[in-house]
Amino acid sequence: MVSARKVFDEMPERNRVSWNAMIVGFLRNEFYEQGVEFFREVVRESSVSPDQVSVSSVLSACANMGAVEFGREVHGVVVKHGLETLAYVKNSLMDMYSKCRCFDHTIKLFRIMGDKDRDIVSWNVVTSGCVTNHNFEDACNYFWVMRKEGIRPDEASYSSVLSASASLAALDQGTLIHDQIIKSGFMRSSCVTSSLITMYSKCGNLIDACCVFEENEDRNVVCWTAMIAAYQQHGCVNQVFESFREMLGEGVKPNYITFVSVLSACSHAGLVEEGFELFNSMTKTHGIIPGHEHSACIVDLLGRAGRLDEARRFIESMPIIPHSSIWGALLGACRNHNNLEMGREVAEKLFYLEPNNPGNYVLLSNIYTNNGRLKEADEVRRLMGLNGVRKEPGCSWIDVKNKSIVFTAQDKSHSRTDEIYEILRKLEELIESEGYVSETQFPNGIVEASRENSLWYHSEKLALAFGILTLPVKAPIRIKKNLRTCQHCHTVLKFASCIFGREIVVRDINRFHRFTNGSCSCGDYW
User: Which domains does the chain have, with CATH numbers?
Assistant: First the structure.
């Protein structure tokens, strides 16, 4: 771009084409701010007026920068020069607002477009925007309306709706879309194939994820990474490393995201030495500079192994300012190992870095509670309220007869509540007869009865009881949860899989837990 700028500056006369060439060049080379400045000059230049190329390019720069205020200024330029009727410009405006987290503006622009003006790009922008803003059901609805209106999906369409299906754990819908992809000839697209692998994996169907991968003849780094991530999420550590070695053997170079999955597998399997070896190879062998995600994996790896002092030294030796996710990994380790002193110090850092993150308050409160410091735990919750921070309510859902039934902790809204609670009371008696004691006794000998009682009615246990009531005998019970599964629920689900002779599959925010015959696929390491 330096040479291009030199040629541009030496031009005796500059027209719209030369100005656009510079703006597009800056954008392609990710020099977004320079592209924006050039556009400002175009607006100021009396002899040149913006066109759809310059406007769409600078809107793309705004989208990548998150510069919504300047994006609004560009919107004004669009209206001033009568460019708002052009479909290409409309789509660029919608995309800019969507990526700048002003999705309501995207929807407004989409709705005022005429049916004839909506092309595949328009539909893709609104569908992917729904996914980005976690409106997964809306994303699926837009996809099916688009199909009804006779518009053929492309790679981007399928990738977005598969991502939405994965987040909803909507396996039936994902399978239906897979059939459409086969018929439309998009199975050769690595983008679509990797999305299919991820969809099947997040819906708990690792077998079909593997089948899609094996049937793909053109496996690039995106497909390999999707498969490695699937194995990691399901706790298949050996397959993670086998796939990683096979990928390298085929000459495919791992990327930034590949290493996140492999290092995460090391963390969840307690493979400290292997994790450090891979971490060091990123720069030395593969030329990839470790990012915050990789460093967080190393801290998590050391933390899970109980090596908290080493984890802290690792953070303090980092050449860059540690991201909140890295301190968050250490705080989680302090909770797991009841390190009150370090946990308190780390939490203070996190309260400064991200004061509105409820997870940090909850972790510190749990550390206090587990150490019998109930007064301090209450104080943390009070501080949470004073700062206007609200904990995301835990909820679990289970699909029965094509309907998703949602439960929250101590939920009594269901018509079969009495039966659900009776099953859990019987389960509690059976488990206690096996010698299990709830983890609610603190170091000073206090047992909090109310806490023990509430633990038995967490959302995933209610979903479990409902599954036992409604699903066929011996049928697998599949539960989804929006938060991490707690230790008590994890232990109870292991017992339940043995007592009822059922396979119980739980997808929490981190990974899959497959409970069979009294054990979990995670090896109690999650």
Answer: 1-118 (1.25.40), 395-520 (no CATH)
